[in-house]
Design goal:
The complex is a heterodimer of chains A (249) and B (464).
Chain A lengths: L2 E4 L2 E3 L6 E2 L6 E2 L5 E3 L1 H15 L6 E7 L3 H11 L3 E6 L6 H15 L3 E5 L10 H9 L2 E11 L3 E8 L2 E8 L2 E5 L9 E2 H7 L4 E4 L32 H10 L5
Parallel strand pairs in A: 1-6, 1-8, 6-7, 7-14, 8-12, 9-12
Antiparallel strand pairs in A: 2-5, 3-4, 9-10, 10-11
Helix pairs in contact in A: 2-5, 3-4
Chain B lengths: L3 H8 L8 E2 L2 H6 L12 E5 L4 H14 L3 E4 L15 E5 L6 E5 L4 E5 L4 H10 L16 H7 L6 H4 L6 E8 L4 E4 L12 H5 L7 E9 L7 E8 L5 H11 L2 E8 H8 L14 E8 L4 H15 L4 E4 L3 H12 L1 H5 L5 E6 L5 H15 L4 E6 L5 E7 L6 H21 L18 H4 L2 H14 L14
Parallel strand pairs in B: 2-4, 3-4
Antiparallel strand pairs in B: 1-2, 5-6, 6-9, 7-8, 7-9, 10-12, 10-13, 11-12, 11-15, 14-16, 15-16
Helix pairs in contact in B: 8-10, 13-14
The chains are: A alpha/beta (249), B alpha+beta (464).
Bound molecules: flavin-adenine dinucleotide (2 copies).
The site of one flavin-adenine dinucleotide has 39 residues of chain B, from strand 3, helix 5, strand 9 and helix 12.
């Protein structure tokens, strides 16, 4: 059973991004880039399924600029078998990515498609859902547990106030949440071995997908600075301030 | 010594009474640093908020012969901030403002009580970088860092705290306020007193503010951990890695040391298997450095000096890998480790380590010896763990006996008996290992000039 995993290259989770002076975007020059943490979890899950003898070949796919190759190599070093890079310098919106993923998934005849629940740069939380709709197959989003059976998959989802388990017929889309697993460290011998694994280059045009953006960014701004706290002398003063200034009482 | 009641009244002529503490809890807490070998015995703790208050306090102390212990984040590892003889502790907790940042000079002037990590974060927010870094960053203070000339994990690339100090404001033992060097890059006007205060451990004056240089941030940093079976091979790994990569840090630790971190369950083992030693290093990743790192790894693997390795794939993984090294000190604290912070020249490390290893194995057959340190600087932290059933005093006496042997070995290598933790109280009686009689006599002379009444951290570094 073939598994397709989507991986995105994003600004590292620990980087505090700064807005460009002209307010057009965030500044990512000289900034650490890594695999989207939820995608790392997706790759880890696929590799664990394979190690448990439940999944066959793992194909990883990434859309974006040349440097996505590094992200794909990381996924290969973690244990994926083969990579597909849909190379483009264009801005990609979730719908365009979902369409490209659909094309790759159909070409690969993947039975299980695993994505992160969202990418930590745009925080859209749309691609997995759009992909399932476009392909007209089931979806198990925000997965904290994935049980693969013959022809179906049980996905435990993290929802408000508890857990929900859904059973999906394959092929199906699964998006990962934080608690699904803890991705492994990548061993150096595996990084070296990953260099020899196949990485196919494609372009959006190869799949006949229109990736033209439908949104325009008007402005990017920093969140408002929190103003400093103050000290009050008495409870009465606090109540007065809450009433008259903060107007919350 | 006056009774604490009248002492508090005296102190209140310099520091508002609301910022003078004499309760047991404060006296205990502020009476000691990270070390656990002395019983805290302070008579009061004061919290000045300005240089003027500090100056008034010192003038009072000088005329009334009140001994003062300057106190920062109390993460010191040599007892420098301990009050053991009824001193008044001067805490800089309430002097933690950032006074001035100048992007053209690339300097920032901060009060002595600013937490080290707050300085680092401030620099980052300005698009700059403050490179001196160590595990106690979240608690230690800039004043304490200057007073100890702190080192840490990035000395290899960026040097010690000293190298970043562009100016110091301090109060000498007579209550005089000095502005030393005032942020200048060039200032060849006689003796550079600023550098006397760096590493003075509170014995020459109270540091009230510091001007620090900031620098360009490095390229994104990559972190690798390698498994090394033989202690003697660590410097081979260092030489190869240093030749190939723009290193910013190179540290080592033993499996036993890592075991104490892993026992807490907050981080994972880097490999499935284990090796007796590990090295962790960090390098700038601007272009193709990962390729170079892999090539070095392959060569070392072929030579048989390393057996496995991992490369962090994100900053989160890098931080977790660093915890394997950085959390050692904290993880062994419950065992009241006897700490040796020693250094020899990098070229001498292999020969020194071989002799030391043999000596420790022979002298401490029953004790657990934990090895780690900034080995890229020739700096080893050798921690002897107290067997749980031993009393602290019995353990200390046993360690001090072996110290004689370790230090005799160190003296043969012209090494330092305290590489970065300073002398304080714990290493005071060993000063002669690393300093000549003539040097010590000059230090006493200097101390007498700055602190004629002997009220500043008496008994530390030099003894009374
Ligand atoms: C987990 C851990 C890891 C550490 N790692 C390192 C490391 O890698 N490298 C390293 O160098 N150190 C390390 N240390 C030791 C310690 O953090 C440093 O020595 C640090 O610089 C001490 O700063 P502090 O503010 O805590 O000083 P304190 O412990 O409060 O004081 C240290 C000395 O400075 C004097 N002092 C403090 N403030 C002033 C002031 N304003 N004016 C005058 N004198 C003052 C005190 O009297 C005392 O003598 C580590 C400590 C811990 C607990
Ligand atoms: C054309 C020219 C260009 C220069 N450019 C620069 C420049 O760019 N930057 C700069 O900093 N300076 C510059 N200088 C100044 C001068 O060259 C430096 O100060 C240099 O370091 C002096 O070295 P010297 O051996 O000539 O010392 P001297 O002039 O012989 O002595 C200088 C001082 O050092 C003391 N001294 C000399 N030897 C010893 C010793 N062995 N032990 C103890 N004390 C000693 C002397 O007593 C005296 O106080 C320049 C000078 C000239 C003529």
């Amino acid at each position: 059973m073939k598994v397709l995993v989507a991986v995105k290259r994003v600004v590292d989770y620990n980087v505090k991004v700064r807005v460009k002076a002209d307010g057009s975007d965030v500044d990512i020059a000289n900034v650490k880039m890594s695999m989207n943490p939820f995608d790392e979890i997706a790759v880890e899950e696929a590799v664990r399924l394979k190690e448990a003898g439940k999944a066959g070949e793992i194909v990883v796919v990434s859309m974006g600029p040349k440097q996505c190759e590094e992200t794909l190599r990381t996924a290969l070093a973690m244990g994926a078998d083969r990579a597909v890079h849909v190379e483009t310098d264009a801005v990609l919106e979730p719908l365009a990515v979902a369409k490209l993923l659909k094309a790759v998934a159909e070409e690969e005849q993947a039975q299980l498609i695993v994505l992160g629940k969202q990418a930590i740069d745009d925080d859209c939380n749309q691609t997995g859902q759009m992909l399932a709709a476009l392909m007209n197959i089931g979806q198990g989003t925000f997965a904290s547990k994935v049980d693969l059976a013959d022809g179906s998959v049980n996905v435990t989802r993290e929802i408000d106030g508890g857990l929900e388990t859904v059973s999906l017929k394959l092929p199906a889309v699964v998006t990962t949440d934080l608690r699904l697993n803890e991705p492994r460290y990548v061993k150096l011998p595996n990084i070296m071995a990953a260099k020899k694994k196949p990485l196919a280059k494609k372009a959006p045009a190869d799949f006949g997908v229109d990736i033209t953006p439908r949104l325009t960014t008007l402005k990017v701004a920093e969140p408002a600075k929190r103003s400093a706290g103050i000290k009050v002398a008495s409870a009465a003063e606090l109540v007065a301030k809450l009433k008259n200034e903060a107007k919350v009482l | 010594m006056t009774t604490s009641h009248s002492l508090a009244e005296q102190l209140a002529t310099a520091i508002p009474a609301a910022r003078i503490a004499t309760d047991d809890d404060s006296l205990q807490r502020y009476g000691r640093d990270w070390t656990r070998y002395t019983e805290p015995c302070a008579s009061a703790v004061v919290f000045p908020t300005s240089t003027e208050e500090v100056a008034a306090l010192v003038k009072l102390a000088a005329s009334e012969k009140i001994a003062l212990v300057p106190s920062g984040g109390r993460t010191g590892l040599s007892g420098g901030a301990c009050a053991t003889q009824g001193e008044v502790v001067v805490s800089f907790d309430r002097m933690n403002r950032i006074r001035d940042f100048n992007p053209i000079d690339r300097t920032v002037t901060v009060e002595a009580g600013l937490i080290t990590e707050a300085l680092q974060n401030f620099a980052t927010e300005q698009g700059l970088y403050f490179p001196v870094d160590f595990a106690s960053r979240g608690s230690s203070q800039v004043g304490g860092n200057v007073a100890t000339n702190a080192g840490g994990i990035k000395v290899l690339r960026w040097g010690m705290f000293r190298d970043w100090v562009a100016g110091i404001e301090c109060v000498t033992g007579t209550g005089e306020v000095l502005q030393l060097n005032q942020g200048l890059v060039k200032n060849n006007t006689g003796y550079d007193l600023r550098h006397l205060f760096v590493g003075s451990e509170g014995t020459l004056g109270l540091i009230t503010a510091v001007t620090l240089r900031l620098t360009q941030p490095p390229a994104p940093l990559a972190v690798m951990v390698l498994a090394v079976p033989e202690l003697s091979d660590i410097m081979t790994v260092f030489a190869s890695v240093r030749a190939a990569l723009p290193l910013t840090a190179f540290e080592f630790f033993s499996e036993a040391a890592m075991g104490h971190v892993l026992a807490r369950g907050h981080v994972r083992r880097p490999f499935d298997g284990s090796a007796p030693y590990y090295v962790i290093f960090e390098y700038e990743h601007a272009h193709n450095e990962d390729e170079a790192a892999l090539t070095v790894f392959e060569q070392l693997l072929e030579q048989g000096v390393v057996v496995d390795g991992v490369l962090a794939q994100s900053d989160s993984q890098a931080r977790d890998l660093w915890r394997l090294r950085e959390d050692i000190s904290e993880s062994i604290t419950p065992r009241t480790p006897y700490k040796n912070d020693i250094a020899v020249k990098v070229s001498q490390v292999p020969a020194f380590v071989a002799e030391l290893d043999a000596l420790l194995a022979e002298q401490y057959p029953d004790f657990e010896v934990v090895w780690f340190g900034h080995i890229g600087d020739g700096n080893l932290h050798i921690n002897i763990l107290r067997p749980e059933e031993w009393e602290i005093d019995r353990f200390r006496v046993a360690c001090e006996r072996v110290n004689e042997l370790v230090f005799a070995l160190l003296a043969r290598f012209n090494g330092s008996m305290s590489a970065e933790h300073g002398v304080g109280l714990l290493k005071r009686d060993y000063l002669h290992i690393s300093r000549s009689e003539a040097e010590i006599a000059l230090m006493r002379g200097i101390k007498a000039v700055f602190d004629p009444q002997g009220i500043l951290n008496p008994g530390k570094v030099l003894g009374q």
